[in-house]
Write a structure and sequence with these properties.
disordered N terminus, alpha/beta, Collagenase (Catalytic Domain), metallopeptidase activity, single chain, 9 helices, two-stranded antiparallel sheet, aminopeptidase activity, MetalloPept_cat_dom_sf, MtfA_N, MtfA_fam, about 250 residues, about 15% strand
Length: about 250
């Protein structure tokens, strides 16, 4: 007997557009051609990934579109190949807590503390796990500079070569330049203190620096370009996008 997995019905373009207007603040800043590309990539991610709700959460089309659209933003110039190792997306209602060993306030120190986990990217072909309440809030308010979907999917991009080292295998010709910028920026803040645009967590490891920088690059591009033009230019080359030239963000 041959079994085939039942495919969920496709989500209509009208539903995707409506959810993006309501929930995806960055989408409003895109030019019409880029918005159409975002819609197509969103539909592809929705249909090709496995979606699972946990802790009693039922997955809705709104959740799928909101998450997929944010995940599609970094790959507008790259198709979906950077996410080929993402097979499943797990959605929780809210954050979970964990006791973990983390980098301390000074270089080379560590602390054990209870932390709220709003997202996680499991290496290799592992899933991406996200907290829905954080996803939808940050997606609607990109001017805050945080986006857990972009953060975790940046990790998955970074992991494509088997390493979470902050050097994503996106555009080989620009990796040496990115590696130099990464080392300069990361080593400049040994005390792991926040600077003008990057929160302290960026300096906990090179991998987190890339993920946090990616959030700010897409959420607050003008501020990043002004505060750290070299970092902005390096990310612009990696992602082949220039979000500082998008329409001005609306604050709400």
């Amino acid at each position: 007997m041959l079994w085939r997995r039942r495919q969920d019905p496709e989500i209509s373009p009208e539903v995707i557009d409506a959810v993006m207007r309501r929930n995806v603040g960055i989408a409003a800043r895109l030019a019409p051609d880029d918005r159409e590309r975002l819609r197509l990539l969103t539909a592809e991610l929705v249909s090709t990934k496995s979606w699972e709700g946990v802790s009693g959460l039922s997955i809705t089309d709104e959740m799928k579109v909101t998450i997929a659209a944010n995940a599609a933003i970094p790959i507008l110039a790259h198709d979906t190949w950077p996410y080929r190792q993402v097979k499943a997306i797990i959605v929780r209602p809210s954050s979970t807590t964990s006791n973990s060993r983390r980098s301390g306030p000074a270089a080379g120190t560590y602390t054990n503390e209870t932390v709220d986990i709003v997202g996680e990217a499991v290496p290799n072909f592992g899933p991406v796990a996200l907290s829905w309440d954080t996803v939808v809030y940050e997606s609607r308010h990109p001017h805050h500079g945080n986006n857990v979907v972009i953060h975790e999917f940046a990790h998955k991009i970074d992991m494509n070569d088997g390493y979470a080292d902050g050097v994503p295998p996106l555009r080989g010709a620009f990796l040496d330049g990115w590696r130099e910028v990464l080392n300069d920026e990361f080593e400049r803040t040994e005390a792991r203190e926040s600077d003008a645009v990057l929160r302290p967590y960026a300096f906990s490891s090179p991998a987190e620096f890339f993920a946090v920088s990616s959030e700010v690059f897409f959420c607050r591009p003008a501020e990043l370009n002004e505060a750290k033009p070299v970092l902005y230019a390096a990310l612009r080359e990696l992602y082949a996008q220039d979000p500082a030239r998008w329409r001005p963000a609306s604050v709400g």
